[in-house]
Every structure is written in structure tokens, then in C-alpha cells.
Design brief:
252 residues
């Protein structure tokens, strides 16, 4: 929506394509960066830009071209998501707690992780961000399409998803490792955002970023908080919080 508002209908698709290229550039830089925190943030922003520029606007482009509603294009990718997600689900190198729960409890593990395997945090963060966004987009579209936004099924999903987001947030508050906290916070925020999207649908909340003049103070506060969080994550020495945590444990 912001791309359309800034560049207009005539140039929105060109702007979106360039936005995706910029995201790809961030991913490339992040994958070469040895700093775990920097690589994680670059991977996240790369995913957001590529998803917005290349995925969302490709749906809008073909929606305009075929005069078909956007939601049908998104729902049609359900099978593609499931097929491609199977690679990451069965990947023995995964450290995703959600996947590992299924591996452990349903005996779906494909083997032990490779000893000494070095993870690329930019790529991992980018793919995780894209798939979590993709998953919840499809879930919400399917709910609205087949159940309706005011159905008991949607209310139940909203309740359970909000509880899940709160549980993850409480777990996140216990993290001492900055880089792990950042990577854990990204899917946590996206899961919580699904509940926020439903509240938007119910017209309980507003998308304040679409009306920057009306909510300039709130947007400045949000931007400042995000910037401060990124700065703290980048400048905090690796392992410093773990050291302080161990010291507190010994002192007590």
C-alpha cells in the first residue's frame, strides 16, 4: 500500500521490482557478513523487501491484468508453500523449535546435524521470515474465504493465536543471548501480527502507517524504538549477557 501511495498506480510495479532488488542486495551483503547480529537484521529486512516487492506486488500485477481478486492468487500458492516447506521441515540441520518438536515427538528426524556446520544467519532469517509471513497470509485468506471473518472458527483462531503469541513473548523475555533473541522475536512478532490483522478486519484497530500525518507522533515513537533496539543488539558484545547471567547465578 505504501509503495502505491508513494509512486502512484503507473509506477508502483516498477518501484516494487526495484524494492525487491534492494532486498536481494541486502540478503547478499548479509550472507557475506560475519557479524551474527548484523547478518540477522539484514536477512530480516531483505525478506520484508523481497516479499513486498516481488511477491505481494506480483499478485497485484496479475490481479490487475486478469481482473481477478488478489486473494485468489495468494490462496493458489498453498500447494507451492507446502512442497517447498517440506525441504526445510525435513532438513536435519534445522534448529527451528517448532520443526524439532515434530521431529522429536513424531519420529520425523532425518538424522543428526552435521558436526561443525556453520549456519548462514542472513539466509536463515530471510527464509524463516518469508515462510512465516506466507503461512499466515494463506491461513487468514482461507479463513476469510471459507469461514468468514466473524465465524466461530475465526474467533477460535484469533484466541489461540493470541495465546501462542503471548506464550512466545514470555519465553522471549527470558532470553539473554541478543542474537538468539532477535531471531526468536521475528517469528513471534509475525505470529502476533496475524491477530493484529484480524483486529484490523474487525475494524477494532487502524493501520496507522497508512495515515502518517494523523499518527506522526506514534510512528516516530515506533521508529525510534525499533532503531534503538537494533542499535542495542548491534553494539552489545557477543556473549556479554550470558556472562552477566552466569555471574548473577553464582552471586545468588
Amino acid at each position: 500500500m505504501l509503495v502505491s501511495m508513494m509512486f502512484g498506480h503507473d509506477y508502483q510495479y516498477l518501484a516494487a521490482f526495484i524494492l525487491g532488488i534492494f532486498g536481494l542486495s541486502l540478503l547478499f551483503i548479509g550472507m557475506k557478513n560475519e557479524n551474527e547480529v548484523v547478518a540477522t537484521w539484514l536477512g530480516y529486512f531483505a525478506a520484508v523487501l523481497m516479499w513486498t516487492g516481488w511477491v505481494e506486488y506480483s499478485f497485484h500485477f496479475y490481479s490487475d491484468l486478469s481482473e481477478t481478486e488478489v486473494r485468489f492468487f495468494m490462496q493458489s500458492t498453498t500447494g507451492i508453500m507446502m512442497v517447498t516447506l517440506s525441504y526445510f521441515f525435513f532438513n536435519k540441520e534445522t534448529r527451528c523449535n517448532f520443526f524439532k518438536w515434530f521431529h522429536r515427538n513424531l519420529r520425523l528426524s532425518t538424522g543428526k546435524p552435521t558436526s561443525g556446520y556453520r549456519r548462514n544467519y542472513a539466509a536463515i532469517t530471510a527464509m524463516e521470515t518469508i515462510y512465516v509471513m506466507w503461512f499466515f497470509y494463506i491461513i487468514l485468506y482461507l479463513l476469510y474465504e471459507f469461514a468468514g471473518d466473524r465465524s466461530p472458527i475465526t474467533y477460535t483462531f484469533f484466541f489461540l493465536n493470541s495465546i501462542w503469541a503471548l506464550f512466545l513473548l514470555l519465553r522471549l523475555a527470558k532470553f539473554w543471548n541478543v542474537t538468539r533473541a532477535v531471531r526468536y522475536a521475528i517469528p513471534t512478532a509475525l505470529i502476533a501480527f496475524a491477530s493484529y490483522e484480524i483486529m484490523l478486519r474487525w475494524k477494532i484497530l487502524n493501520e496507522i502507517w497508512l495515515s502518517p500525518r494523523e499518527y506522526i507522533f506514534e510512528l516516530v515513537l515506533i521508529t525510534a524504538a525499533i532503531s534503538l533496539g537494533i542499535l542495542i543488539a548491534v553494539i552489545t558484545p557477543e556473549g556479554e549477557k550470558e556472562r552477566l547471567a552466569r555471574k548473577d547465578a553464582l552471586d545468588s
